[in-house]
């Protein structure tokens, strides 16, 4: 089957919502469903097994584990993974990875939720992960090796806004769900797939350009950040910019 959104309707989340509705129309025979990002260059036939097998063994949501360059997965590394780990007590290394599988039960749960405009765009991955957690669904991870794909840098601006808006909107709306979580060191999830992930994708990074862009964004907002951050945080941030 070829599935697409209506003409003029764009957005990653809208495509997922369309896919979920299609899957629901086959609910009588559906045992598991999986999806991968369209820009992948490292996918192998084994990925279907690694993603699908856990669902057939009783899990509801399988998230990926792969080796990635330290500058790949910016939003995941700096915001999503730390918040999932520290705030929700969930040890999920790639909570917004584009490769995952799910059970019919979780599919129905997602379809019952309110899909805000940001969730219909790049906010969809964090939308799905948070609702799986708040719904107490059974989550695991699966090793897929290296993720080699088209760099996301050109679209990081709108992607950041959509992911972070969805993340904080859902966290605030479910504050009672995580405020009572005890302070613990989260344990890793049950792991399937590859145990050795291999070397990550090589990326050409211009460190000078990155630092120049960072300074260009930081200095016009330095006074604002000083008002928002603690003295300790703002002083250490300022010291960071003193180094070349």
Task: Please give a structural write-up.
The chain has 244 residues and is of the alpha/beta class. It folds into two domains: 12-202, Spore Coat Polysaccharide Biosynthesis Protein SpsA, Chain A (Alpha-Beta Complex); 206-244. Helices cover 45% and strands 10% of the residues. The protein has helices at 12-24, 46-56, 74-86, 104-111, 124-134, 156-173, 175-179, 207-218, 222-228, 231-242, and strands spanning 33-35, 61-67, 100-102, 139-146, 191-193. Strands 1-3-2-4-5 form a five-stranded mixed sheet. The longest helix has 18 residues, at 156-173.
What's the SSE blueprint?
Blueprint (H helix, E strand, L loop, with lengths): L11 H13 L8 E3 L10 H11 L4 E7 L6 H13 L13 E3 L1 H8 L12 H11 L4 E8 L9 H18 L1 H5 L11 E3 L13 H12 L3 H7 L2 H12 L2
Parallel strand pairs: 2-4, 4-5
Antiparallel strand pairs: 1-3, 2-3
CATH class of the largest domain: Alpha Beta
Uncertain residue segments? none
Helix content: 40-55%
Number of strands: 5
**Between the first and last Cα atoms, what is the distance in angstroms?**
54 Å
CATH topology label of the largest domain: Spore Coat Polysaccharide Biosynthesis Protein SpsA, Chain A
Rg for CA atoms: 19 Å
CATH superfamily caption of the largest domain: Spore Coat Polysaccharide Biosynthesis Protein SpsA, Chain A
**The CATH architecture of the largest domain:** Alpha-Beta Complex
What's the average pLDDT? 91
What's the arrangement of strands in the largest beta sheet?
A: 1-3-2-4-5
User: What general outline do the C-alpha atoms trace?
Assistant: globular
């Amino acid at each position: 089957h070829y599935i697409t959104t209506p003409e003029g309707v764009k957005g990653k989340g809208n495509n997922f919502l369309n896919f979920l509705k299609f899957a629901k129309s086959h609910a009588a025979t559906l045992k598991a469903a999986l999806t991968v990002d369209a820009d992948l260059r490292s996918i192998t036939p084994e990925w279907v097994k690694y993603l699908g097998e856990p669902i057939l063994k009783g899990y509801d949501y399988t998230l990926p584990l792969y080796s990635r360059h330290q500058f790949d997965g910016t939003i995941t590394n700096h915001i999503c993974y730390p918040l999932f780990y520290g705030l929700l007590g969930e040890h999920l290394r790639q909570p917004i990875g584009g490769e995952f599988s799910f059970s019919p039960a979780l599919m129905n749960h997602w379809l019952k939720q309110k899909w805000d405009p940001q969730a219909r765009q790049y906010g969809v991955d964090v939308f799905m992960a948070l609702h799986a957690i708040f719904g107490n669904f059974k989550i695991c991870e699966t090793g897929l090796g290296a993720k080699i794909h088209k760099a996301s840098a050109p679209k990081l601006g709108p992607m950041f806004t959509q992911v972070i808006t969805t993340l904080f909107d859902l966290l605030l709306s479910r504050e009672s769900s995580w405020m009572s979580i005890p302070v613990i060191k989260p344990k890793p999830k049950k792991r399937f797939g590859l145990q050795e992930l291999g070397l990550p994708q090589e990326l050409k990074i211009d460190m000078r350009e990155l630092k120049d862009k960072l300074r260009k964004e930081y200095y016009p907002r330095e006074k604002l950040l000083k008002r928002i951050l603690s003295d300790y945080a703002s002083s250490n941030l300022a010291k960071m910019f003193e180094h070349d």
